[in-house]
Amino acid sequence: MEKADFTGIQVHTTGMMDGTIRGAARTCFVARCGEIEEHEMQWKGLMLALLLAPLAGHAGPARFDHYLLALSVAPAFCEDEPQQKQKFAQCRALSGPGFKRVPLTLHGLWPNRADRRHPAYCGGDKAGTFCRLPPLHLPANIRARLGQVMPGAADCLDRYQWAKHGSCSGLAEADYFAASVALTERVNRAIGREITNHVGREVDLAGLRATLARVDPALKDAVVFDCQTPRTPDPAKRRPMLREVRVNFEVDPATGGPGRPLAYARAGHRHYNSGCPGGRAYIDSPLD
pTM (2 decimals)? Predict the structure, then answer.
């Protein structure tokens, strides 16, 4: 995290104290003069602390190179250690109609660096129980849209994502989540239907990329598909599933928020296929 820049902040204590100190200096003995100088330094330190207090906890944007939008495929997420995941409200509420409505749910929007030393926790809040993190203060319309695309907000995932990632963006909470929601909606419009059309079977990644090229061409080379095999007691489910769709975006120099889609190769990824055997991904069903 970059250090705050306090250049230009001046503590105007000299004028308040010059008369007192000079007057005392005319009559003080040598030993007393040292004591007066010590009091002067303490007074200046107190004034500096009072001036800087309002800036505490307000970090500027960290240095980063691009944004990564991480979108989850909820059935695959909830199938991984399912007994544990049933403690999450988002997994208990998972349904066929809900998955069809929002196939890709918002995991997070992450400021990333090319050297992979990604910034985190720039506001000072550290990892812990998500719901013990400070609550967010979002306009009602953004809160409602966020609830649609981030079911994990029921488990305070939104607080965690802001504390770990959003606080490093330099954006206000409302702007950060408005951008996150809009991008999630955009990717779902592009390939959401193609994903739900393949529930319970495999989808060809090349086919998903062809859909992107047709519906939203700018996204085609920005997307990486990530497959993982869930840790589950059901042997039939132990197969590579589409777990996340990750989309790279440039940093908009005017706003500091996400800008144009960024090709995965420029973001440091070697291929659009991350762990999907043969370029195919199984789409898990929310119903079993």
Answer: 0.79
| Domain boundary assignment for the chain | 14-55, 66-282
The answer on pLDDT for 230 being more than 90 is yes
Q: What angle do CA 265, 271, 276 make, to 5 degrees?
A: 155
pLDDT above 90 for 231:
yes
Q: Give Cα separations from 179 to 16, 110, 167, 242 (angstroms).
A: 48, 12, 14, 24
pLDDT digits (tens, 9 = 90+) for 171-190: 999 999 999 999 999 999 99
Enter the CATH code of domain 66-282: 3.90.730.10
Spell out the long-range contacts of 252-261 with Cβ–Cβ below 8 A and sequence spacing 24 or more.
Answer: 255/171, 255/175, 256/61, 256/169, 256/170, 256/171, 257/67, 257/169, 257/171, 257/175, 257/176, 257/179, 258/67, 258/69, 258/109, 258/179, 258/183, 260/218, 261/218, 261/219, 261/221, 261/222
